[in-house]
Amino acid sequence: MIGAGGRSNRLSALFWRQPMLALAGLALPPVLWLVLIYIAALAVLFVAAFWSVDDFTGEIVRTWTVRNFTELAASPTYRTIALRTIGMAALVTLTDAVLAFPVAYYMARVAGRRLRLVLITLVVLPLWSSYLARVYAWRLILAHDGALNWGLRALGLPAAEIGYTNWAMWIVFSYIWLPFMIMPVYAALERIPPSFFEASQDLGARGGRTLRRVVLPLAMPGLIAGSIFTFSLTLGDYITPVLVGGPGSDFIGNVVYSNVGVANNIPFAAAYATVPLVLMGLYLWLARRLGAFEVL
Amino acid sequence: MNKKANMGERQMKTSVTKAVLAAALGAVLAPAGAFAAPAKADYPKEIGKGEGELNIVAWEGYAQDDWIKPFEQQSGCKVNRKYAGSSDEMVALMRSGGGGQYDLVSASGDATLRLIYGGDVQPIDVNLIPDYANFLDNLKSPPHNTVNGLHYGLSYEWGPNVLMWNADKITTPPDSWAAIYNDTHKGQITVPDNAIQIADAALYLMATKPELGIKDPYELTRAQLDAATKLLSDQRPLIKKYWALASDEIELFKNGDAIIGAAWPYQTNALRADNVNVMDTVPKEGATGWADSWMLASKSKHVMCAYQFMKYVSTHEVQAQQEIYFGETPANAKACDAMNALEAGSCSKYHLDAPASYFQQIHFWKTPLPDCGDGRKDCTSYGDWQKAWQKVKG
Amino acid sequence: MERRATRILLGLWVALVLAFLFVPILLIALYAFNASNVQSWPIRGLSLQWFPATWANGEVRAALWLSIRAGLIATALAVILGTGAAFAVHRYRFPGRDALSFGVVLPIALPGIITGMALNSFFVFWGMQLSFWTIVIGHATFCIVIVYNNVLARLRRVPRSLTEASMDLGAGPWMTFRRVTFPAISTALIAGALLAFALSFDEVIVTTFTAGAQNTLPLWIFGAIRLGQELPEVNVIVLVVLALTAVPVWLAYRVTMDPDGR
The domain A75-295 belongs to what CATH superfamily? Predict the structure, then answer.
């Protein structure tokens, strides 16, 4: 016991005297893990996008070409799909921000300790129920003879034909990623000292003004952090469009996925995958500058 | 850390990264050898003791416990099952990890040639499968799994892609695929989300537009492919949803979203079992269909278990069980009695006892290749089909 | 404090959002008792048959067990790597510090299909057969950031003076870590680990590219959804998992909450 303690004491003293050693011990494993496993592989993917496929042999030609990119840019189909994907990701992010902010605010500022705990648990709990099963459940709600139309008919309202449309995708995506927005916004709001609100009110600011001038700017990092999740998760999804989308609902992910299935299309898939890759890179860079990484 | 050490580390990091990069580039592109040459035959002398494990890629419903469990018990081969949703996915899975990840795949005819010419599967010795002798003649050496006399696949089950409709909503039984191409049922039609669907359109054009000169729905020139694509593009506004999963279509019919569409008999069975009044037919233009084969990976590590499995699933009992579960037809012509024992009348319901003419009206899936198969080399490839299908879907 | 009307309006909004979050889950729970295996509204018959059926399903049990093991190991790896990264970034200024804090976010911030393809190519390069361990590596990669963020956020709140006081009082660095720093971050570790496990437990897209013949629970669910024959079993599984995790999740957040919070 003493021996073990002594050894760990010696070890810790060594680390204390040699901060570089401690740093290496702490930082090297995650750095190596990320660089060797992940970053290198990403680079490979990116490089492959600049190669091409011989139409007749199906072999990959390893000479630099931007053919995949020009083909993508020239095709209205792929442009439409990219715009649909990005537009949906943006719309979902916006929707979730609007839905989440009051909830996070209530959790952080209005609810007492006990209620807050219940709310946090309720918000996080859906993450423990299968994403696939939840998406699937929406089909039952939105179908022609589904729960929604059943309710509408009971109220004497006309049926809503939104099953298997882009409206359905919008609802389901907003639903699925909502907890990923609520939590960071809550984390950001919870950090605001109550004195800030009091100070603002003491200075004569009304509720709306306090919200605009004090709360929103301080919640911004949380909103941006949440938007990284909602935006990126929507951008990379290909299962929800299959399950609840209608005709004309394919996402970038669907195209990439179907092109991976046929070996000689890997460069093409990689080229198309650079669209979300570059987009997220820019987004992250921007988010970082806005300080969103601290509340992710 | 002093500056020098830092530099050194950085340099090392760069060179490691470079090395990783260079090697990984080669590895990602390993499937570049696709369409090189089929693998050579290397048969085992006999089916020996199993290796204790077997990894298979199968269609959903092709590896149910009902018949897998008894196999595991009698062979000692534990079966790890991976289900694929499409032929493309099957090909991808068989190639994943450089191949050898899986031992067997239940490939449909639109994937088999890709696997054979990709060198992903090896020839099998049909003489080691006793029930092979009982197979339907057309399925002993069909062109989709037999190349140059070598059997790269063992036929399993087959069936037509039928026209299915809700008989409560559509009272006059349709007898032509026209029902899904004209706007009578606009917004209530569903067809599979699959590039091979182009063949369905080509089949319809074969009958309705003979001037296009389509002889085989899988061997289309650019002009013929464009015509099929146009038909499908015109069809798109009529579509409620392109179904990707069998359950998509089941729910579309069950919940009133769709009333007519292209289906597998599986969906008909599932819906009828749930008291939805659906009917299906092979329309007068004929139908496309699937004929699945079990294929052995060229880098399989469990060859004995794989042979034991193929031997087992070729027996008439298992073929009948499979048939009842999925609603398809066995390759084993002797399965009739076992089928009828499981479900009275199922042998004729699934046409195992039908005359050859029934078989003739089904155009089985095969991989579209630039080589038209009749000397012409100007046919469109599966890659072309995929892009065309993407364009149709938008 | 907010005015009464504001509070009521906010409360109403929260109730609506919670309803939005839980209606599909209630449906899942209800249809676990569906007599038919096709879902249609309204439910026409109730049955308990799917509970024993699910339990008897060997594939479900194997997938569940595999998911739990993969999740636990991936979480453990993520805790080690994420905590290390968080301490490094918090304590030290070093070249590449910014890059590290950026790189750690990438696996989760980049769309899943890209992460999946990239990891797949990595495994192919090293000639690694896709296996249980490739699933674990993939999950650990995107779980690092969860632990990292939780720990880093907590470290930023622990006043430096606390550790300094401990050292001044004669405690060695090890003692300081054990008695001061670790207790301060332990609840953040729990929360981070819990969320990391949840992410791993429900991941589909990356796993599709990193799993071999093994089925994690979500992969089995995706399979079961395709044909639809075993749909009620999917609902049973979801219901059971929810029932089993609700209390631990609640407890975990209870210990995580600042005791000095309101």
Answer: MetI-like (1.10.3720.10)
Taking only the tens place, the pLDDT of each residue in B256-266 is: 999 999 999 88
Chain C partners of A100 at a C-beta cutoff of 8 Å? 17
The ipTM, to two decimals, is: 0.88
CATH code, domain carrying C162: 1.10.3720.10
Residue B81's Cβ-side half-sphere holds a number of Cα atoms within 13 Å equal to 22
Q: Residue A192: pLDDT above 70?
A: yes
Q: Do C109 and A232 make contact, defined as CB atoms within 8 angstroms? A: yes
Helix (H, G, I), strand (E, B) or coil at B282: coil
- List helix spans (H) across A155-265: 166-190, 194-202, 207-210, 216-235, 239-244, 252-261
**Domains in chain B, CATH or no CATH each:** 53-158+290-364 (3.40.190.10), 160-289+381-393 (3.40.190.10)
- Contact check, Cβ <8 Å, A77/B391: yes
Handedness of CA B34, B38, B41, B47 (dihedral sign): positive
User: What is the distance in angstroms between the Cα of C105 and the nearest Cα belonging to chain B?
Assistant: 20
Are A259 and B28 an interchain contact pair (Cβ–Cβ within 8 Å)?
A: no
Length of chain A: 296
Is the pLDDT at B12 greater than 70, yes or no? no
Q: How far is residue A18 from each of residues A25, A26, B1, C96, measured CA to CA in Å?
A: 11, 13, 10, 19
d(Cα B376, Cα B171) in Å, to the nearest integer? 45
Q: Does the structure show a pLDDT above 90 at B271?
A: yes
Give the gap in angstroms from C-alpha A51 to the nearest C-alpha of chain B.
10
CA distance C21 to chain A (A): 7
Nearest to B80 among C94, C125, C213 (CB): C213
Distance CA B16, CA C76 (A): 27
pTM summary value: 0.87
Interface test with B, best of C31, C221, C229, C233 (most B CBs within 10 A): C229
Residue C96 lies in a domain: yes
- What residues contact residue A208 under an 8 Å CB cut-off, 6+ apart? none
Collapsing DSSP to helix, strand or coil, C43 comes out as coil
Q: For C123, name the nearest residue in chain A, comparing CA atoms only.
A: A37
A295 interfaces chain C, CB cutoff of 8 Å: yes
- Answer yes or no: do A262 and B386 touch at CB < 8 A: yes
**Cβ pairs bridging A and B (under 8 Å):** 122
The rounded distance, in Å, linking the Cα atoms of B246 and B250 is: 6
Query: Which stretches does DSSP call E strand in chain B?
Result: 53-59, 78-84, 104-107, 121-122, 146-147, 150-151, 153-160, 162-166, 189-192, 239-243, 260-263, 278-281, 287-297, 329-330, 362-364
- Residues of chain C with Cβ-Cβ distance to B61 below 8 Å are 227, 229
Question: Which residues lie closer than 8 Å to B70 by C-beta, 6 or more apart?
Answer: none
Contacts of C122 in chain B (CB under 8 A): 24
